[in-house]
Every structure is written in structure tokens, then in C-alpha cells.
Amino acid sequence: MAVKRSRGASIAIGSLGWIIALWIFFPLFWMFLTGFKSEVDAIATPPHLFFRPTLVSYAEVFERANYWHFALNTVLISVGATFVAILLSIPAAYAMAFLPGKRTKGTLLWMLSTRMLPPVGVLVPIYLIARDTHLLDTVVGLAIVDMLTNLPITVWMLYTFFREVPLPILEAGRMDGANRWQEITVVLLPLAVPGIASTALLSMILCWNEAFWSLNLTSSQAAPLTAFIASFSSPEGLFFGKLSAASTLAVAPILIFGWFSQKQLVRGLTFGAVK
Amino acid sequence: MFAFSSFCRKTVLSVLIAGTALGSGLSAAQADSTLTIATVNNGDMIIMRQLSKEFEKTHPTIHLNWVTLEENILRQRVTTDVATGAGQFDIMTIGNYEVPIWAKQKWLAEIAPTAAYDVNDILPAVRSGLTYQDKLYALPFYAESVMTYYRKDLFEKAGLKMPESPTYDQIRQFADKITDKSNQVYGICLRGKPGWGENMAFVTSMVNSFGGQWFGNGWKPMLDSAAWKAAINWYVSALKADGPPGATSNGFNENLALFASGHCGIWIDSTVAGGLLFDPKQSQVADKVGFAASPKGAYGKGPTWLWSWNLAIPASSKHTEDAQTFVTWATSKEYVQLVAREKGWVAVPAGTRQSTYDNPDYQKAAPFAAFVKNAIANSDPNGQTAEPRPYTGAQFVSIPQFQAIGTQVGQTIAAALSGQMTVDQALSASQASTTRTMRQASYLR
Amino acid sequence: MDATTMTTAPPPVRAGSTSGRKSGILLLSPAVVLLLVWSIVPLLLTLWYSFRNYNLVDPTMHGFAGFSNYWYLLTDPDFLEALRNTALLVVGVLVISVGGGTLLAVLYDQEFFGRGIARVLVISPFFVMPTVSALLWKNLMLHPIYGVYAWMMRSVGLTPIDWLQRFPMATVMMIVAWEWLPFAVLILLTAVQSLDTEQREAALLDGAGPVARFRHIILPHLSRAITVVVMIETIYLLTIFAEIMVTTAGGPGVASTNLAYMIYARALLQFDVGGASAGGVIAIVIANIVAMFLVRAVARNLEA
């Protein structure tokens, strides 16, 4: 940054930046704190900022539900769905970016519009299909549904990334006698790795947080963390502590993952659509 | 890139392996059997889940798989499952609203307990709610009626005395006197959260006592009657004057938390709250709680409130026999003893068995015991309202469409409570929407 | 959807030969076929159900319903309210997240102490699942008695506001914006950072003030990124329902019921599959209209 500023101005900007950041982050911080309070402390008025931390709520959450089972399902489902979605999107996005036809735009539009109707509108048909194909309450079944709901977005994102790849590079590859397969795997993909990675990251995050299908198509074997939360949302008695502990557990992995991969996400985006 | 893709390939493989492992796990367990139990996340159910380890010890070939969900989500899950015959669950926790309706559709397996189970020990009012054409289709886990809770210390300070059987007018006067908003003490807490099982449970019970009812002869909706207006006016004005802020988001659990943390003066709600409010571990006011009968309105009679959470076996289950073994275990006298041993008598599931109420230890631990038993016995779900009615049910209407109607009217009442509409507007809107639903379902021509 | 409405002339350099087009179709087909099956099969079933009497809890009602499901839905006074709320939610959140996102992107582009950490904090809510953020806001933040905001208002002598009862739609909008503003910041910040230093320095040398720099250099540069944000967020905002279910259940009354929640209530609270399917069909029609406008705008912006 070459822009020079007075000392006062930078202090003002810095404090503004921090105040807004803390204000936006505060609910998550408070959730984290409340998870370590006893139930009585959790609803104390005025709220206690200083208190004796306890693991009672966490102990109760772990006793009531097998957290690791839910977490493992979530990981399997998001990773599986993301991987297959990327695998299917690469050729599709390639075709749209480099071999556009008359209908390319129309196809893209249609793909995205499939994503805009409320899933509950088609719940009963999907539920019946899942029942008849024995995919109810299976990791595979939910991964397929998540994959399909994210496919339009991954195709579209990859399409915008691929469009940034200069055509002459691909043509040079073709001159050297590369066939379509080599053109994609040897020439295009290495160039597009940052874009693919950030598409995959986004898809992971969206799958992790998908709540509707995961609640309705699973019961126990394949139930992910969104179902785990549904058993703590308003039980009898005082529940703020348990709710906060369970929420922290459900959110923490993806939050930490998000913090660490944030740079990667940004790098990919710079490369493509938002450049 | 290669590292990336091989990582992914591994993950997908493991996804597939995990998937098939789950599948084969299920089929290998055929000799044994695994029961999937859907249940609501109430305190009593959570105790059942903990204590079910004992069951697994004594029944080594039966394994239990628990799905614990919040009430609304549970209801949508089990209803979709049973209505489509998907067979994901072997045991479902359902209310006495669902049991006869589902039994009629042949969605539930009949339950025939052994003599040792002593079916006749189950309170008659509760048992008859689970019977369809003389056959039993579910066993009660716990049952509740309605009563009035109040804070003895606040009443003493204000020089008031709660009668054994108060009227709604008296309740209002008391509430006015003990409200102290600057100290966040609210005279009255009532359910305001919309839903047929939330605010409409209380409202229906209150309306009955005011002399109103949902439907009259020929299924004609009667929500614009004078009795409904009187009742809803009482409800809205009492909560506005003396209720806690945010009344439209308070259901049973929220009010329980408010009362237990000392924010409510009077609370009219389910009798199960007694076990929680008198338990010093869960309530800051355990030594200050008093109780009385549910208040009476102008009519003063009519059905009050009867709800039970029951364990039922869907007809689509493949393990009907083993499921019945568990259901009878979890609702047996021995289970009551087990809870008493492990968690104390106050935590015992209430409202189902005569033997529980006969037990001197329970009477000692739960001062409200006899009171609750009476409230259940007099809940009169099949009784008459001020005018003849074509339906049964105390705080609900026993027809499949009531979930739709109750949800919608519940929302409209909440809108009146939040001040978005007047009571008259809310009731005429409710009358209109109920008429629509009844016409769509061909009850009305 | 007519494909010709979308053709903003494909870039000539990339126009493929006949053989190219053939393999293009081949490469596209796995994704397209799957999505076709995924969208057409349920669509046809939904269309079929929407003309039938089908109530999950009352199988005695069955048979052909004609247009009665549509009639009951379209004449329902709540339907217009739901449409209005859907539009309000989408537009409101878009305005907050794009407007706020642009300002915050510029702010977090400035150099200051601990900027990296502040950025990470700001984008965090995007990673949180919708049910959790709704529960969090409803219980820990906005609860009129135990909530942090109620405490803050009381400590300065004000009566706490019961947000979800008094301003249901605005509060839901705020919660949703809290989830999506970080996403906008993430994308827009990326775009601001990619503005090359030379361009900025040139503007600085020309003596452009901060406002002029923002308007003439930064905003035009962001237009593409803004389109991306609008695109992705609209997709999600049209189908928002978890936040509403957890916080207000659509109420009080129908004050915070959007189309997605209305269909949800039909399908899973009233178990009226016929009515919910009619709602689903209408939602599909609306989705296509929105998509047509949106993709047109996006296409124009991305070609430019």
C-alpha cells in the first residue's frame, strides 16, 4: 500500500476495523463462553462475563449423543459429495468454457435455476425415491443429494475459472499433439488448481451446513451434525449451556478449517470470477 | 494435483466402504436385532435412554439405536416415515393425538402385553386414549394434565391466598398484584409460542372452560363465538399487562426456564412441570412453589387437558416382537422402580400407573402426586363442551386436519398477542381459515 | 427457458468446430444428465401431486383434485404476504451484504495492526450452520430477558425490545445478513486486493480524493465481484427457511413467512402434500423468472 496516511487516521481506521470485527464475531465468542457455564450461570441476568468455568455442559452433551458418530458422518458426506461434484464439474465446465455452443448459456442458466426452488417442495418425491432405492439413512444417499444440490454452483465457478485460462496455452498444447484428455489433465488442470481448490472449499462448507436434506433423509446411521444439533435445540428445563456446548462442537471443525483455508479460498477466487 | 486426487480417491473409497459396512452391519445383525427408536428430547426420555443400558444387559440379542429429536422435527420425521411405510423406525414416541388416528389407518402394530405387565394398572383415562376398537396400539410413557403453579413467597408478600380451585378472574387479579417488572417478576406466564401442541393446547383447554369449542353440529367452526372472544381477550390482556416480554416465543420449555429461574408469579401449564419445579437441582424456586387446580372460566366445566407421550410400534417395523419387548419394559412397573433407584422418586415418569401413585415413597417425594392423578382422572377428553360437539379430545381435536388448523390458528392468536391484529380480527381470520381447511377436507360442503 | 434470450454472442475466439461441439456435448453430458434426472423426475412427480388430493395423515382423501390445490393456495390471503416477505428478505439481505460488504472490503484493505486476525473474525459467521446461528441469536443474543442485547439496553436504562415479536421480518433479515455479509466481504475484499497498485497510485497522483477514488476506481472494478455475490446469495436467499423455522416459525401471524417456509408448513406441519406440491410448482416458476433476469445481468457483466 503506497497510500500515506496520518498517524491519527490510521489509528482511527484500525480501531474501526477492530470494533466491527469484534462486534460481528461476538455471538460466536459468547456461544463459546456459555458452553463452559453451568446452566444457572448461563441464564443469569445480568450475564456473567467472569464465572467459574465448568465442563458440565460438555459432559452432558457427550453423554447424550455420540458426537464422533455425527461428526464422522458429516465429514464423509461433505468430502464425498464435494469430490464427486468436482469430478463431474471439470469436464462440464471445460466444455462450456472452451467449446461453447448455442445452448451453453441456456444450460448454465437452467442448472442454476434448479438450485432456486425450496427443497421442501420436492421432499415427498425424493423421500419416496430414496425409500425405494434403499438410500434412506445412508451416507451414500445423503452424499448424492448434497452433491447434486451443489453441482450447479461448482460447475458455474469452475466455468468462470476456466474462462480465465488463455486459449493460446491450450492451443499450444494441442499443437504438440495433446488429445482432449491430455489437454485437460496436463495443460488445464495444473493451471486451474487454485480455482478448483477454492471451489472445493466452498462446496465443503455448504455441504457441512446443509440442514434440510440431512434432517429429513437420515435417522441414525447416517445422521450428520445438523441432526445432532436438532436434539439440543429446546429440551426441557434450562438448556442454554448444553445448547452452546453442542453448537460449539458442531461448528468448531468447519470454523477452524475455514480459518486455515481462508487464504486458499481467496487465492482461488482472485484467479477466477472476481478478478 | 496428484496428491490431491489420490487423497480424494481414498476418501471416496472410504465413503463407499463405510456405506457398505453400514449395510452389511445391518444384515449381520439379523440374528440379533437392532431397534431404531425415535424419541423426543424431554427429560424423562433422556433418562430412559440412559437406563436402557440395563435393558441391553438383560436382553443381549436386542441392540438399541436412538434418534433423539426436538418435538416438531420428531413429529415431521415419524409422520413422513409411517405414512410412506418407509420403515426406518421400530419404535416411535407419539402422542395420544396420533395413536387413534394412526391406528385407524393401520399404521401401528397392535400391542398385547403379558399378564405380568398388568395393563389394568394403567390409569383408565390414559389407557382409553390409546385404545382403538378395543385394541391397544401404544403404551404410555408418561401422561399429563394441566394445573396452576404459583410462587408462595410472592403471594405471601402481597397478602394473597390462592384458592384450591381459582377462576380466571381471580388469577388476573393476583397476577396484577404480584407483577414487579422492575425486578423482572412477571405475574403470569402462559404459552404463547404458536403451534397446535403449544399455545393452542392451553388456549383450547381455556376456551372449553369459558364455554367455547372448536366445532359445533355438522362440523361448523365456532371460533367467532362469544366464548372464544372472552377467552382470547382474557389471554391477550393478561399477558400484555402482566406477562414476560417475548411471550410469543415462550412455549412449555421457555416458561419452565422462566419459572424455575424466578421470573414468573403464576404459570398454568402441564402437570409434568411439577417434577422439575420441585427438584432443587433444576429449579431455583423449589421450596417456594405452590399449586392449585387449573382455573375455571364462565362455563367452568368441559374437558381440560390430557396428553400422554407413548411408545408405539409402526406396522412397517421388521422387529415387531423385539420392539414390543422393549416397549413393555420401558413402561413397566419395574422400570418405574429402576428410575426411582437410580434417579430418585421425583424423577419417576408420572401420570401412567396406579401403582406409582399408591407408592408411599412417591407420595412423599412428590407432594403434588394425588393432585395430578385427580387432574388426569377428571380431564374428561371424551366429555361434552357447552354445546354438543362432533369430536373428541381435551386440548386438541381428534381429527387428522387438526395439526393444520391448530398450527394456523395458533399463528393468528400469536399475532393478536403481539399486537399485530385485534382479538376480533384474529378470531374472524381464524374462523375463515378453519372453514377453508374443513371445506378442503370435505367435512363441510 | 428460451436459449436465444441468453446468447450475448459467445466470444468468437472460442467458437468450436463441429467435432469440438460433439466432444463438448460428451463432456457436458454426465453433469447435465444427472441434473436433468435430479430436477425432472421430482418435478414431474411434484406436478402430478399438485393435481391430486394427497394428505399424508389422511389417506381417506385421495383422487384427482383438478386445480383445487392451486385455487386454495392462490386465494389464501397468506400467499401474497409470503411472496412479499420472500422479496423483502432477498432484497434486504442483498442490500445489506453488498453495501456493507463493499464498505468493509475497503476498510479491511487498509493496513492496520492485526488486520489478518480481524479479517478472519469478520468472515467467521459464514462457516456457521444456519440452525446454529439462528439458535444463537434467538437465545443468547436477542432473548428479551437473558439475552446480551437486552442486558445492554437495560444497563443504559432502556426497556429491552423483544425483537422477534416486534420486528420479526427485520430481525430474521438481520440474522441472515449476519451469515451472508461475511461471504460478501470475502469475495469483495479479494476483488479490491486485485486492483493493481499502479492504478491506485495513478489516481492518487491525479489528486483524486478518497470518495472520488472509491467511486471511479474501486466501484467499477468491483462490479463483477458484486454480480458474483448477488448471484450466489440469491440462490440461497430464495430458499431460506431454517432461520425462520428456528426463530419465529413464520410468525407472529404470517409476519415472517416466506414462500419456502409456507411450503414447508404445508408439507411438514399440515402434511398436505398436494398443497405443498402446488406451492413447489409456483416456486419453480418464480425461480426461473428470477434466474432469467439474474443470469442475463451476470452474463452481461461477465462478458464485458
From TrEMBL, chain A:
Q: Which UniProt keywords apply?
A: Cell membrane, Membrane, Transmembrane, Transmembrane helix, Transport
Classification via SUPFAM superfamilies: MetI-like
What topology in the membrane does the UniProt record assign?
A: Multi-pass membrane protein
Record-linked InterPro entries: BP-dep_ABC_trans_perm, MetI-like, MetI-like_sf
- Which residues does the UniProt record annotate as the domain ABC transmembrane type-1? 71-261
* GO cellular component term, pick one: plasma membrane
The name this protein carries in UniProt is: Carbohydrate ABC transporter permease
Chief location category: membrane
Tell me where in or outside the cell this protein is found: Cell membrane
Cited CDD domains: TM_PBP2
According to its UniProt entry, the protein's GO biological process terms are: transmembrane transport
Q: Which residue spans traverse the membrane?
A: 12-33, 70-96, 108-130, 142-162, 183-206, 239-260
Give the family this protein belongs to, as stated in its UniProt record.
Answer: Belongs to the binding-protein-dependent transport system permease family.
UniProtKB/TrEMBL annotation, chain B:
Gene3D superfamilies reported for this sequence: Periplasmic binding protein-like II (3.40.190.10)
Q: Where is the signal peptide?
A: 1-31
- Which UniProt keywords are present, listed alphabetically? Signal
Chief place of localization? periplasm
Presence of keyword Coiled coil? no
Tell me the protein family, please: Belongs to the bacterial solute-binding protein 1 family.
Q: Which domain of life is it from?
A: Bacteria
Compartment list: Periplasm
Q: Which GO terms describe its cellular component?
A: periplasmic space
The protein's name: Sugar ABC transporter substrate-binding protein
